[in-house]
Write a structure and sequence with these properties.
Strand order of the largest sheet: 6-5-4-3-2-1-12-11-10-9-8-7
Helix content: under 10%
Shape: globular
Structural class: mainly beta
Radius of gyration: 17 Å
Order of helices and strands: EEHEEEEEEEEEE
Strand content: 35-45%
Distance between the termini: 5 Å
Length: 232
């Protein structure tokens, strides 16, 4: 990250926990409806301008054509260009850039992140060796006062060879205390199992309220394993 911010979340139990079907989208005050940044002006982690760089590791089953070694989430904010196509688009826009072993830029794509005081949700990368991650549970956390919580969420894939495949995700969230930042940071482990006609996959995400999803490990349907570790 380019800078460090001390922050806290107002973590509450919410009715949205029980058999959740959709990610919660915050209601926008009437005086902010025309603000281009209405969905990200209150973000505490995914703040406009921040860059989250991850190191990629994978097992030998993965064919890494471009020798990808790093990806970077850059928070751009706003809703364009997606809202030009869909006026109901309600996510913070982020650019994902891919870099090889020599730290040379390869490609980039744009997608969305949702952050509010009820849940945090983001798209995993989907280009190159990451295309199969559509079948894994997206990084997704619902805040709660309870120490352990579970919920379900379904999503239909809409990308390349996995288009129209329905995936059923089962999440289990466990909250724990961080030994280094107890006074202002909360930490969570989110484990999820995903089932579809393509097969079974599992995802383990580590999250805290300072850096967001700082470790994402994807056990894919084809037995490959991809891990993203936040390094800056």
């Amino acid at each position: 990250l380019l800078f460090i911010v001390l922050l806290t979340y107002n973590c509450k139990s919410h009715k949205y926990f029980e058999n959740i079907k959709q990610v919660y989208i915050e209601n926008i005050d009437s005086d902010k409806k025309t603000n281009l940044n209405k969905f990200d002006i209150d973000n505490k982690i995914f703040v406009i301008g921040r860059k989250f760089r991850y190191k990629i590791t994978h097992n030998k089953r993965v064919k890494n054509i471009n020798n990808l070694k790093y990806i970077e989430y850059e928070i751009q904010g706003g809703t364009k260009p997606f809202s030009d196509i869909d006026s109901t688009y309600s996510q913070t826009v982020v650019k994902i850039s891919y870099f090889n072993n020599e730290n040379t830029f390869i490609i980039s794509e744009r997608t969305g992140i949702i952050e509010n005081n009820i849940n945090v949700w983001l798209h995993p990368p989907r280009s190159d060796i990451f295309s199969s991650l559509q079948l894994n549970a997206f990084p997704f956390l619902i805040f709660s006062d309870n120490e352990i919580k579970s919920w379900t969420w379904n999503l239909e894939c809409s990308y390349n060879q996995f288009n129209n495949i329905l995936v059923k995700h089962n999440y289990i969230l466990k909250k724990y205390k961080s030994s280094n930042y107890d006074s202002y940071m909360e930490s969570f482990i989110i484990k999820s199992v995903s089932n579809s006609e393509a097969g079974k996959s599992m995802t383990i995400n580590n999250f805290n309220t300072l850096y967001g999803f700082y470790k994402m490990k994807f056990f894919n349907y084809d037995k490959s394993i991809l891990t993203l570790d936040l390094i800056s």
